[in-house]
Amino acid sequence: MDDILDIQNVSKQFGPRQALNQVSFKLGSGTITGLLGSNGSGKSTLMKLIAGLAWPGSGRISILGVPVGVESKKLVSFMPDVPVTESWMNIGDALRFQQDFYPDFDQAKALRMLDFMKLRTADKVRTLSKGMNERLQLTLALSRRARLYLLDEPIGGVDPVARTKILNALMEFYEEDSSILLSTHLVTDIERIFDEVIFLKDGEIVLHRPVEELRQEHGKSVDELFREVFAEC
Amino acid sequence: MGIEFDNNQPIYLQIMNYIKGEIITGKLKPGDKIPSVRELAAELQINPNTVQRTFQELERETIVETRRGMGRYVTGSEETILTVKKEMAQDVLDRFIRGMQELGFQGEDILTAVAENIHQRNQEQGE
């Protein structure tokens, strides 16, 4: 399998606080990986470094062999944990903005996804519920023809029905030759879509394994293992 | 399809057993087309590679056949289906006998208990 993402010995410090410490891992093509950790474990920081929105203190990150920088941004689509849209926009405006920023934005796919998500281009972003807004953000991120999708907490803070809708959309619109790195602290609803999981604790990787192997070996769900590892948090 | 997944066990095994069950009970018939990886992954909200692995295992056991460019089909061989049925029956039996042994029943005792139970059921049905 080709490596889509290669991270070597990445550390990042914010003042006295060590946000990431010697993080190394690779992601193969066509895989969906769960980046699991409690709040403040370093998930969002790691996502931002991979997206090229912040720089590591030390270590190297490359996407398909391209070091993180202007060129790598063409390969990576990032859905941050805060909306990328402005409150004055309607959904049509949001799509046009995305298209202006990213030449690989697939308008036809975006419209299909909007339809699936029950969103209309005339809807005002300001009036969307939290769940609807998550659906829009996911549409914007997945409609780019990227090789690596970084989805930061795509199901955070939405109710179970909206969660199911978002998972359905992920499975429906995911391109199989690309890879997804998805961060979450809600494991149970989503663990069946992962190939692999990475447990990030206090800025360090404590586990990186295929999920079916974990189930086979421990006779436990990923959620249960997650709770054991993060029990004292 | 309706599967209640148990996240404590490998998912591919659960999908395998589900499909085998559908074949044995005749809900999927010999020669029937089975859904694509993509369709099943979307429907069950399961990782596509997990579904892929399920199909590979089913192919290895010759329960499912791939026809080039046309998709996957349930085997046309009644013999293979009978074998699967026997294997699944064997699993049920193994679990049952282990359970009885844990309760202290041995060889002949188990046979007697089963015979009595079936006899009783037949009588109840006859009434």
Please explain how this structure is put together.
The complex is a heterodimer of chains A (233) and B (127). With 233 residues, chain A is of the alpha/beta class. Chain A has helices at 43-51, 91-101, 107-117, 130-142, 160-173, 211-218, 222-229; strands spanning 3-14, 17-28, 32-36, 58-63, 66-67, 76-79, 148-152, 179-184, 196-201, 204-210. A 6-stranded mixed sheet of chain A has the order 6-7-8-3-9-10, with helices on both faces. In chain A, strands 2-1-4-5 form a 4-stranded antiparallel sheet, covered by helices on one side. In chain A, a hairpin with a 2-residue loop joins strand 4 (58-63) and strand 5 (66-67). The termini of chain A are far apart. In chain A, 43% of the residues are buried. With 127 residues, chain B is mainly alpha-helical. Chain B has a 3-stranded antiparallel sheet with strand order 1-3-2. Chain B has 5 helices and 3 strands, in the order αβααββαα. Chain B has helices at residues 11-24, 37-44, 48-60, 78-102, 107-126, and strands at residues 33-34, 64-67, 71-74. The mean pLDDT of chain B is 91. Chain A binds chain B through residues 30-32, 164, 167-168, 171-172, 174, 176, 188, 191-195, 212, 215-216, 219-224, and chain B through 5, 7-12, 38, 41-42, 44-50, 53. Chain B: GO terms for molecular function: DNA binding. Chain B: Keywords: DNA-binding, Transcription, Transcription regulation. Chain B: It holds the Pfam family GntR.
